[in-house]
Amino acid sequence: MAYVVRGCLDRDFDASTGTCAQEIWVPQMPSLPALSIEEAQAIGLACALLWGSAWVFRRIRKFVDQS
User: Fold this and answer.
1) CA nearest neighbour of 33 among 67, 56, 5, 1
2) Which parts of 1-67 fold into alpha helices (H)?
3) In a 3-state reduction of DSSP, which class is residue 25?
4) DSSP helix/strand/coil, 1
5) Which of 14, 33, 39, 56 is exposed most, by the fewest CB atoms within 10 A?
6) How many CB atoms lie within 10 A of CB 8?
7) Are 12 and 21 in contact (CB under 8 A)?
8) How far apart are CA 8 and CA 36, in angstroms?
C-alpha cells in the first residue's frame, strides 16, 4: 500500500526563498514491508524464544551465585 507525499523538483526549488514553484506528489512505499500472518508469527516466536532463553540463563546465574 503506497501513500503520496509532497515533493519538489530541483529545477522548481528556489534556494534563496526556500519555496517551490511547482509542487508534485510522489508515491512512497512504507519503510517496512507488509508481513503475512506466518511471517509475523515467526518473528513473534523468535522473540519469545530469545526472551525465554535469556530468562532461563538469568535464573541459572542467580542459582549459581547463591551457591
Assistant:
1) 1
2) 37-66
3) strand
4) coil
5) 33
6) 15
7) yes
8) 35
Query: What is the dihedral sign for C-alpha 36, 1, 27, 19?
Result: negative
Look at residue 4 in the predicted model and tell me its pLDDT.
85
Phi and psi of 48, rounded to 5°? Answer: -65, -40
Q: In one letter, which amino acid is 5? A: V
Cα separation, 21 vs 11, whole angstroms: 9
pLDDT in tens, 21-67: 999 998 887 788 888 999 999 999 999 999 999 999 999 999 999 87
Half-sphere exposure of 12 (CA within 13 A, CB side): 8
**What is the reported pTM?**
0.52
pLDDT at 33: 80
